[in-house]
Amino acid sequence: MDAVKTNRGTVWTASAHIITAVIGFGVLSLPWATAQLGWVAGPSLMILFTVLTCYTSTLLASCYPSGDPNGGPRNYSYMDAIKENLGGFQVKICGAIQYLNLFGVAIGYTIASSISMMAIKKSNCFRSQGDDSSCRISANPYMIGFGCSQIIFSQLILDFHQIWGLSIVATIMSFIYSIIGLSLGIAKIAENGKVKGSLTGISIDVVTPMEKIWKSLQALGDIAFAYSFSLILIDIQNTIKSPPSKYETMKKATLLSLGVTTIFYMVCGLLSYAAFGDLSPRNLLTGFSLYNPYWVLDIANAAIVIHLVGAYQVNCQPIFAFVEKTALDRFPHSQFIKTEIPVPIPGYGPFKRTPFQLVWRTIFVIITTILSILMPFFNDHIIRILGALGFWPLTIYFPVKMYIVQKKIPKRTAKWLGLQILSVACLMFSIAAAAGSIAGIVYDLEVYKPIGNMA
């Protein structure tokens, strides 16, 4: 079916896709990031990343058509845009970074979902056995359960055109658990009777000077990840109907979704830091692990799981599309790859998929689930290092480079120099954040035991 004929997306559906990919899961780590940076640097960096992401996302959205934002041949993926505007080896570099990031995020979401499901189980355990109970629970069954659900959704949802309903549900869920975290933070401040935190973040009395440096750099990775959606921006833009132009609709969706995201990030991150101060947890909701009534946190964690089901699909659809398109291009006459077969589903009706889609998507989910089981400690670090390594090339460098090429901006002009300075400055940010994330991985590897209980 021609993709253009199925495009029915609007500002609202595009915003839902962006919010599903961005808000919610990222917000949970922001109180910890703010605790490392303090009242000044924390919110300042959130605002800075908002402005940068909004600006460069607009540049990237203009690359959906080649040349003219309101017309011209369409680029249906990030790699298509790179190929059309830059070409050469940069296409392979972009693809490797983009799909490695999406693959890593799938692992991170699998781990994160198991943490929330275990939190619900522990809550029930505390209720029945008392708050002093150890209630140790293995994460493996929950990761397997999440993987099984993704196998089903990966087959039911063919591409971005069919995911808008799940994205809207996931967006609602992200608001639910963000609001719960915000409300509990306010209650915690009232319980403390004061606002915690400091201008410069966690004090040297709590950590060593070197730990302060590394943790501050890790916080940069957290914030970078929290604003990362450029790697699926063009895929989202491809779902939008026209007229009006896809570029104008995407620009409005970007402004709307990032505006909502920033408000939630600022309010939740800062209020939670005010509640916990230097002891802000890596996951906002874990700071209330013994909070009564338990059902409040159960709702929040259930909302996280539902959100992550949708976020997993939003992030993995570009991988599915790339592999399936590449396979069809390489083997255009293969019946295994191109022939659709009807798959009967009781109560749903038959739907058509190729044997390759059925096998490949199932194998992909199984691999991400197995890696999640083998590396459960890796969740925080995978977020930071992917945020650090993916932010500069995908959010800054390629959009800026393609914009310069499209607009034919002469070298050494004021605008050209400004864009180059922006790119280099963000590169320094990414290198610093990656260094902090690697230091954290090295530390955890020293104490890591594979396939053990997580809680």
TrEMBL record:
Q: Which GO terms describe its biological process?
A: amino acid transport
GO CC term (a single one): membrane
Pfam families, per database record:
Aa_trans
Q: Which residue ranges run through the membrane? A: 12-33, 45-67, 99-120, 141-158, 164-187, 255-274, 294-312, 358-375, 381-400, 421-443
Q: Which UniProt keywords apply?
A: Amino-acid transport, Membrane, Transmembrane, Transmembrane helix, Transport
Compartments annotated for it: namely: Membrane
Amino acid transporter transmembrane domain spans which residues? 8-442
Write the protein's name: Amino acid permease 3
Q: Which organism is it from?
A: Olea europaea subsp. europaea
> Which lineage ranks, top first, belong to the organism behind this chain?
Eukaryota, Viridiplantae, Streptophyta, Embryophyta, Tracheophyta
